[in-house]
Specification:
707 residues, alpha+beta, 32% helix, 26% strand, globular
């Protein structure tokens, strides 16, 4: 029996991207509904409501119907990323230990000059430079205090000096946020907490971040950088989440708002608001989670998860059903200490601006993006620079009349005019040939990036399945997927909203850590004494959030290093049993295996001695997973979905050639489509190259195989 609107209960997941905002609505009946709208910077919460309304219309409902019947809302956003990349954060000051005011500017020595640079830039050492810090020297105040490496206060905090520093920063330098980072405060946080008390008294409207709370780990530059990033973006993240929560409430939603973190878990908005650094790359992290969930359902354990939206192309690897965390996370060349799924990216998306190098006249795609406003020229919203989306129109991949299910009509003539004047004519080429060349460049850039995260790390793409998602990736995946020689390509049913799909398949996740150095061998009881209090704290927190013990999972890891080294390797603990001397010995062996995998066979050297330096706990509250409805197969003939033919760029034929055009909504599970072909879905476009066959599986994923 069909449930009435009032009886329906929904889980809603919304992901805000640089160009589009995506929504997935899961109905308790098992139905799934998608919505996509343009993002609305700087008021991103408005775009969230627009996207929910679009998904609600697809379900035959209103946004008010959906929000009133929603039991859980999950969210991912690029708000923090955009704040940092555009330098639009709060005017930030830093209070640190006297004598260490230069830490944020010195970075990690020469490494700071080339971290985050391309290989070509690194080659020219003399021309390399450190990024301009988020805090200028004039906004850094050193105050008398000192805690030693044992956590003992060997010089008391000069509270009068702190008060003077706060007044100077707020009244004379007009700072809006203050980062506090003292030496060894992760062992003793008393001085940092006292600074917060003083700030709340002297300048109560100032946003404060303490290193002992946001990054309680060794690494003076990285810890300071992390604290500054959080202070710089914290107020904007907090204001945004507050505004979003209020607008959802005004729309009729009265449940929790859960926010994706870069490590692949959800946090309540109230907690995420104080941890802006955790929201960095939260959308791409959700995409990886979505790919892992889909891979578990359809049997893909080795996955190259490729996400291409309007602004960037992002890729991560899932090997053996598990993903890796980034060794040294960076945002705009700034290091930060927060667990993050390992994802690499380039500025190549549908909104990436196509230009000519002024020195060489060589075409390039990105990294600058037209974003949502003004967007590509064909959007008709004031764009004046050609983008990859404009090129996709010119090579026949996009149908101007049915973009976003017909909600927007693309202006092909405007795209052709701008592309002709700025690209084709200066190159002395026809519009078609120039556009084809641009598509090849974009595909080559993507292939190079995927080689970087696979081949250069000892992984063979031929052992992997490519999951292509995001609004733009299904357009190009046939080109670069064949070049990579992957096993096959999967375009998920939720491809264009896969990050939102991943949000709904994520868990509540809390991260805990304790910094302490233990020599190897150590007593198992000493290690248990570190983990046991963290586990008890985690159990209490998850219980407060409504999770039963049966729905709690705890994953432990230990950071190891060899004697006299300063870099660690995080080593997962197998199983959840209490440590014994035997399994502690096995953990050391696991560290050495991981060390050699990272640095090369024979690089491990036990005679140097080993140390355990940090003890990590990941606590999960298992959320309900969306139900994947398996449909019956209805035969291979997909001709009923054929809607016409037109010329598109076909690589195998060296130019434009006739291709069959299909409606995804008319295809049935089991139907096959032979390339060259274009399949228009309500929220994205799938392009099959020559000698490629697309098959709709029982979950309505498009499986692309090579002849």
């Amino acid at each position: 029996m069909t449930a009435s609107k009032k009886e329906r209960r929904f889980v809603v997941a919304t992901d805000v991207g640089g160009t589009c905002t995506d929504t997935v609505i899961f109905d308790t009946s098992g139905a799934v509904h998608f919505g996509k709208s343009l993002s609305t910077p700087p008021n991103f919460a408005d775009g969230v409501l627009d996207s929910i309304a679009a998904a609600a219309r697809e379900a035959g409902l209103t946004a008010a119907d959906v929000l009133a019947g929603t039991q859980l809302f999950t969210h991912g956003s690029t708000v923090v990323d955009n704040t940092l990349l555009t330098r639009a954060g709060a005017h930030t000051g830093l209070i640190t230990t006297e004598g260490f005011e230069d830490t944020i500017h010195v970075t990690r020595g020469a490494y700071g000059r080339w971290a985050g640079q391309t290989e070509d830039q690194i080659k020219h050492v003399v021309a390399s430079f450190r990024p301009d810090p988020l805090v200028a020297m004039a906004e850094i105040a050193g105050v008398p205090e000192r805690v030693d490496y044992k956590g003992e206060a060997i010089r008391d905090l000069d509270e009068a000096a702190v008060e003077d520093a706060v007044r100077h920063l707020v009244e004379n330098r007009n700072v809006e946020a203050i980062a506090v980072c003292f030496l060894w405060s992760f062992y003793n946080d008393a001085h940092e907490k006292k600074v917060r008390e003083i700030v709340s008294r002297v300048a109560p409207d100032t946003y404060v971040t303490l290193s002992s709370e946001i990054a309680p780990v060794p690494g003076e530059y990285e810890r300071t950088s992390t604290t500054v990033i959080n202070a710089y973006a914290g107020r904007i993240a907090s204001d945004y989440l507050g505004e979003l929560t209020r607008k959802l409430g005004a729309g009729g939603y009265d449940g929790p708002v859960l926010v994706m973190q870069g490590y692949g878990g959800l946090l309540p908005a109230s907690e995420a608001a104080g941890r802006a650094v955790g929201m960095i790359e939260s959308g791409p992290a959700a995409g990886i989670i979505g790919s892992k969930f889909l891979g578990d359902v359809i049997g893909d354990q080795n996955i190259i998860a490729a996400d291409m939206g309007g602004t960037t192309f992002k890729v991560g690897v899932i090997e053996g059903g598990e993903f890796e965390y980034a060794r040294e996370p960076l945002i705009d060349r700034f290091h930060y200490l927060a667990p993050k799924i390992d994802i690499v990216s380039i500025g190549a998306g549908g909104g990436s601006i196509v230009s000519l190098d002024p020195r060489t006249n060589v075409p390039r795609v990105g990294p600058q993006s037209a974003g949502a406003l003004p967007g590509p020229v064909c959007y008709g919203r004031g764009g004046t620079e050609p983008t990859l989306t404009d090129v996709a129109v010119l090579v026949g991949y996009l149908d101007p009349a049915i973009f976003l299910s017909g909600e927007m009509t693309l202006d092909m003539d405007a795209a052709r005019t701008v592309f002709t004047e700025k690209i084709a004519k200066p190159l002395g080429m026809s519009v078609e040939n120039a556009a084809i060349g641009i598509m090849r460049i974009a595909a080559a850039q993507i292939s190079d990036l995927i080689h970087e995260i696979t081949v250069e790390r000892g992984l063979d793409p031929r052992d992997f399945v490519l999951h292509a998602f995001g609004g733009t990736c299904p357009i190009l995946c046939g080109l670069f997927g064949q070049d990579l020689n992957v096993k096959r390509i999967v375009v998920p049913y939720a491809a264009a909203v896969n990050c939102a799909f991943g949000l709904a398949s994520s868990d509540i996740v809390h991260e805990y850590s304790t910094t302490k150095t233990l020599q190897v061998p150590s007593l198992a009881n000493d290690v248990n004494a570190i983990f046991d209090p963290m586990i008890e704290t985690a159990k209490a927190q998850l219980a407060d959030e409504g999770f039963a013990v049966a729905d709690m999972r705890f994953e432990r890891a230990v950071d190891f290093r060899y004697g006299l080294q300063i870099h660690e390797v995080t080593t997962p603990v197998r199983g959840d049993d209490t440590f014994t001397d035997d399994n502690l010995e096995s953990l050391g062996a696991d560290f050495e295996a991981l060390y050699e995998r990272r640095y090369g066979k024979g690089s491990a050297f036990r005679d140097a001695g080993m140390e355990m330096t940090m003890f990590r706990l990941t606590a999960r509250g298992l959320g309900a997973r969306p139900e994947m409805i398996k449909e019956d197969l209805e035969g291979e003939d997909g001709s009923a979905a054929l809607t016409g033919r037109r010329n598109i760029f076909v690589e195998g034929r060296g130019g434009l050639a006739e291709a069959a055009i299909y409606s995804f909504e008319k295809l049935r599970p089991g139907n096959k489509v032979s390339g060259p072909a274009v399949i228009h879905t309500p929220i994205t476009t799938i392009v099959l190259q020559e000698n490629q066959t697309g098959r709709l599986d029982q979950y309505r994923n498009m499986i692309i195989e090579f002849a």
